[in-house]
Design a protein that fits this description.
This protein is α+β, with helices and mostly antiparallel strands. It is 38% helix and 24% strand. The strands form 5 sheets. Strands 15, 16, 17, 18, 19, 20, 21 and 22 form an 8-stranded mixed sheet that branches. A 5-stranded antiparallel sheet has the order 6-5-4-1-7. Strands 10, 11, 12, 13 and 14 form a 5-stranded antiparallel sheet that branches. Strand 17 and strand 18 form a beta hairpin. Helix 4 packs parallel to helix 6, helix 5 crosses helix 6 and helix 9 packs antiparallel against helix 10. The chain is elongated, with a radius of gyration of 31 Å.
């Protein structure tokens, strides 16, 4: 096959796929005789099916180029010819992907080869064909730009002739979101935007908002599911990323909770559960920092209930178990329910008592060591090891009073063990980074939950549990014994609790 023929073959294959989609749709929704041609009257919508096409000034291969058109461009048919279509490019259709602009910025009339075009007639049948083609092509990343172009046109047709079609609008919104997530390319007219010059693309159009505002029959389960999907789309547009402030996170989490607790549409429930998990963990972290542990309790309870509901309604999906794992992190964030600060640990070494304390407020916490000998109190000494957001009640001190450890809420989904020397003035160190090996690999996963079992009697070993996962937690945490001095793993187990306890003696 020559290089010149490859684009033509690709266009023919793509047109054939679209035609198959149309025939499939007509077979499903109509018992009327099926025809592959509906005529090509003036005013029909014409779409560029190739990655790029040229508009010529005459219906001839030797004629000059008038304009370059990106794939998915929507044109208006003026006259159908044997090999070329006379079309008009509307002035409001801006070119993308570096396509040339018409002189003067107005409408452009020219000739487009049939090899790179598909025609959709006006009327209900043509609109149904647009929807069918868009629905079939939308799951394919390589054809998603065309799917978005078809669905955008169908949505506009429905809006122009009546109240619109919520089902089509939701399908358009989801297709546009998927296209934006992959970074395009986009058909002309699709409303997308990005944050900064290199930020992610997002769909900013009003398809979801239009579908959410449309009236729905409360007795029609399908209509209610479409309404749920539209509301979820509106929320994704309202919160393209997890919020950062406490007030915004509270509102975002409440919105995803409401959908997760009431939604029945599988896709909507799956997506809502995932977004609820992310927002609730960020909210929980801020609530711990604010000392609002009772709110963390209530949040964890509702997230756990939503996770159980998702697991029941979606038994084949991981959404429920993933949300339940995140509820577990919320519960562990709360610690023992005591204050975040101050929290302290004490050791009596003969006549000397050593106290290590985390004090201050979030954003300004310090680790302080105090010593009392024979009733004489020495001045508290702040250490260079600075806690950032320790789990309430997690502070431990070694029996020899040479080191301290606690669980740090290092991120919304990571509770990591930290150890600090009380003899040397140095920063605290994450145990996973010290230990290398399996704990360090766990550190790279999305979710990490750790607890401290305490120190060995000689203070040389630290016992802890680590449970790490990306999608769903495993059945059991892994127990580890770490050398405090070197950070090396001394022992690991998920079952042998006797050996673990023996090494901690």
């Amino acid at each position: 096959m020559t290089t010149a023929r490859r684009p033509l073959r690709r266009n023919i294959a793509l047109t054939a796929m679209t035609l198959l989609a149309l025939l499939r749709f007509r077979a499903e929704v109509s018992a009327a005789p099926i025809t592959t041609s509906r005529g090509e009257p003036p005013g029909a919508d014409v779409f560029v099916m190739a990655r790029e096409a040229v508009l010529r000034d005459r219906p001839s291969r030797e004629s000059r180029f008038v304009r370059t058109l990106p794939g998915g461009s929507r044109l208006t048919l003026l006259e159908a010819g044997e090999q070329y279509l006379k079309v008009e490019v509307a002035a409001g259709e801006p070119p993308r992907d570096g396509a040339s602009k018409p002189a003067g910025g107005g409408a452009t009339i020219g000739y487009l080869s049939r090899d790179v075009a598909s025609v959709f007639a006006p009327g209900d049948a043509g609109t149904a064909d647009l929807v069918a083609a868009g629905r079939v092509l939308a799951p394919s990343e390589g054809h998603r730009r065309l799917a978005a172009a078809f669905l955008l046109c169908a949505s506009r047709r429905f809006a122009a002739s009546g109240p619109g079609n919520p089902t089509v609008d939701v399908l358009l919104g989801r297709t546009a979101e998927a296209l934006a997530e992959s970074g395009g390319p986009f058909p002309p007219g699709l409303e997308v935007a990005r944050t900064g010059s290199a930020g992610p693309w997002t769909y900013t159009g009003d398809a979801f908002r239009r579908a959410a505002a449309a009236p729905a029959d409360t007795q029609d389960e399908d209509a209610l599911r479409v309404k749920e999907a539209a509301r979820a789309g509106v929320l994704r547009q309202q919160y393209p990323a997890v919020s950062t402030s406490l007030a915004a996170l509270w509102q975002e989490t409440a919105a995803w909770l409401e959908l997760s607790e009431s939604g029945k549409d599988p896709d909507t429930l799956r997506g809502s559960a995932d977004r609820l998990g992310s927002a609730s963990l960020s909210l929980g972290r801020l609530l711990v920092a604010a000392g609002r542990l009772e709110d963390v309790d209530r949040l964890e309870s509702r997230v756990r209930g939503a996770g159980g509901r998702a697991r029941t309604l979606l038994p084949q999906a991981s959404a429920g178990n993933k949300l339940l794992g995140r509820a577990q992190i919320l519960r562990m964030m709360r610690g023992n329910g005591s204050a975040l600060a101050p929290q302290e640990a004490r050791r009596q070494l003969g006549p000397k008592e050593v106290i290590v304390r985390i004090e201050g407020k979030p954003g300004g916490l310090t680790l302080v060591v105090e010593t009392t000998v024979g009733g004489t109190h020495q001045v508290a000494r702040p250490k260079s090891a600075i806690p950032v957001l320790p789990v309430p009640g997690s502070l431990r001190m070694s029996p020899d009073a040479r080191s301290a450890a606690w669980i740090e809420i290092a991120g919304p989904s990571k509770l990591l063990p930290v150890v600090a020397s009380l003899e040397r003035d140095e920063p605290a160190r994450e145990v996973a980074i010290l230990a290398d090996g399996r704990p360090l690999r766990d550190h790279a996963l999305l979710h990490v939950v750790s607890t401290l079992a305490g120190y060995s009697k000689d203070g040389q070993r630290l016992g802890m549990s680590i449970q790490a996962w990306s999608e769903t937690p495993g059945p059991d945490p892994r127990w580890s014994v770490v050398s405090v001095g070197t950070g090396e793993i001394v022992y690991e187990t998920t079952k042998d609790s006797k050996s673990f306890r023996r090494l901690m003696e």
